[in-house]
Amino acid sequence: MKNFSRNSKIGWAMLIAGIGIAMELLLNWRLFVPLLIGCSLIYYWKSYRNRDSKKIYLIIGVSLVLIPFISTVVFKIFIISAAVFALIQYSRTKNQPKKMIIETIPPNQKSKINKKIPYIKNTLTGNQRIFNEIFEWDDINIQCGFGNTIIDLGMTMLPPGESIVLIRGLVGNIQLIVPFDASVTINHSAISGKLSIFNQEQELLNSNVIYYTDGEDDSASRKIKIITSVVFGDVEVRRT
Fold this sequence. Notes:
Elements (H helix, E strand, L loop, with lengths): L5 H22 L1 H19 L6 H18 L1 H21 L4 E8 L24 E7 L3 E7 L2 E4 L8 E11 L2 E5 L4 E15 L2 E13 L9 E11 L2 E5 L1
Parallel strand pairs: 1-2, 1-4, 3-5, 4-6, 5-9, 6-10, 7-9, 7-10
Antiparallel strand pairs: 7-8
Helix pairs in contact: 1-2, 1-4, 2-3
């Protein structure tokens, strides 16, 4: 039998948890009755014409739906299991960061592609390594769940103008290596962590920081706008 991938296992776990929660709600009248009342209030909210008290039905209805849902034993077990799984995956990848060395070719100006799949994809856990792969440059927009991430743009052939790199992470460190001749703008948000930009370090606690390079870089033909956000982790931006 073919082994399931990590994403398939996560999908099956969510499906089983959903079925278990639904069965527990149906078999436990103490949870099912508030759920039924909440659904009725939400349905009544859609058809209610009085705007002044319309929001009250929505708030009460959503509360009566959510409280039974999060009160189920299956939901609590699923949350605890997910937290333990995330910690295990993070401990495995902590010392093995995802390193992406990016090399691109000039974009095809004659191409009439309306939709395509980005080369760099989201990763929840685990490692993603890209070495000596050549592809047409696209703005980077990825989410990295748990683990460290390294993106090397040092050998990248960026097109003239502004290129965007958007990275969101939950727990882990992010390192970006940018070309020496590119102007850089950084917008970083973090709950807790350290921000290091060209050897300038700053401790952050529930903060948002916008960093601009020196005014002399305004004449640069290649510009990189970096937007990063992490819950817990450090972010480093350095030149090649």
